[in-house]
Amino acid sequence: MIDNISGKVHFEGVPHPSDGAIWGQKSAYRLDFSSVVQPGGYHLEAAEAVSPNFAVSTDVYKGSADYILTYLRQQRCGFNPFLKDSCHTADGIVVDHPYKSGKWIDVTGGWHDASDYLQYVLTSANAVYQMLFAYRENPSVYQDNFKANGLPGSNGIPDILDEARWGLDWLLKMNPGKGKMYDQIADDRDHRGLRLPTLDTVSYGLGIKFSPVYFTTGKPQGSGKHQNRTTGVASVAAKFSSSFALGSEIFTNLDPSLASQLKKKAREAWEFANSDPGVCQTACVVSPYFYEEENYIDDMELAAISLSQISHSAEGRNAAAKWGEIEQVTPWMELHRARHYQYYPFVNLGHTFLVQSSDSLTSKKFAGYMKQGLVSLQNFSSGDPFPIGIPFIWCSNNLVVAAATQSRLYRKITGDRQFEELEAALTDWLFGCPFRPPFIVQ
Questions:
Q1: With 70 as the cut, is the pLDDT of residue 434 above it?
Q2: Is the pLDDT of residue 56 over 60?
Q3: Would the pLDDT of 437 be above 60?
Q4: How confident is the model at residue 193 (pLDDT cuts 50, 70, 90)?
Q5: Does pTM top 0.90 for this prediction?
Q6: What Cα–Cα distance (Å) separates residue 437 from each residue in 382, 394, 427?
Q7: Between the CA of residue 408 and those of 324, 339, 402, what are the distances in Å?
Q8: Measuring CA to CA, which residue among 57, 22, 19 is closest to residue 37?
């Protein structure tokens, strides 16, 4: 490892062989130079191979947390700051409601799903919770370079909270009353080519520019020949509850009125979740493509512990521990497989709070559950030149993020560093540790 300026050899080591055949290569090696902490610019040399230049510094990831928000601002529905224009302002028309089907409801807002214009509570509520949780864990790293509407400027509020608030406002629209929830806007009839959101002309047979808004029924849904396998409302209602609860905590001083509203909504959503246990999957029409979430236990655990944080209730903590005992390890970590979004959101943050319990037995037990999942990933990563232990399925980066989150939190809370290499490999993957020969032969 050579200093780019002085030419001084800063480190010498022996690469460890890995199984290159996993990636269709004749050979593969990993070199651990993490002992080098002296800031500077470096490159690696191995025989005649030379790596690109890179930096070692304490701030190499500075700004990355805020940069991620760029994508969410780009995906905003309603006013889109990238286009400086509004879209889907007529959404939407209620479907699957016992007596309101065909009626209009204002659900403009939130974020488009990906390269289409579907919107799901399943993913959006999780995104809201993850942002609020990230801010709670590391409030000092977030900047204020954008206004609430997503345009450049400052409004005295960290940008991550502006984005979380954008999501919370939409979730409130999707939960207009106690026991009344909507969980999806549009469906796979949307998949008709690329177009800007402001030029979306897909017709659902509901009138010009109206999208269907799916009422949360707790029963299988799908207006075509394909239906999902919904068994209840708990998975989506609990996601509402946990996001509202954490939102109430974070916005207590910033917006007391909103915090009070969210606290009430969180309790109501929790009651609704308990009234109809089961999973609420997304709806499809033209193809059997939907989010096949099959576990709601993690959602119930997180909702219970999030509520206990704002009510200081032992009852909530006990309920969280009860649900956590049912699903001790997120299934994909041990199975090394999953159908599309089968075990979403792929990480159980409820365990994280229970590890920090004042009860030593509870803390030790749930630390063991977190460790068990990481041990499974580590076992699956054995011999791989990219030792991340992740099954490569559709949307597998969700799994990478989940595993990186769990390993980071486990190390932070317990002080146990045995999964530090796994954590580093997962982070490397997200930041572009490439699938290509790592050295350029000159």
A1: no
A2: yes
A3: no
A4: confident
A5: yes
A6: 20, 24, 19
A7: 20, 25, 10
A8: 57
What does the pLDDT average to over 417-441? 76
127-152 residue pLDDT tens: 999 999 999 999 999 999 999 999 99
342, 293 contact by CB (below 8 A):
yes
- For the stretch 149-177, pLDDT in tens is 999 999 999 999 999 999 999 999 999 99
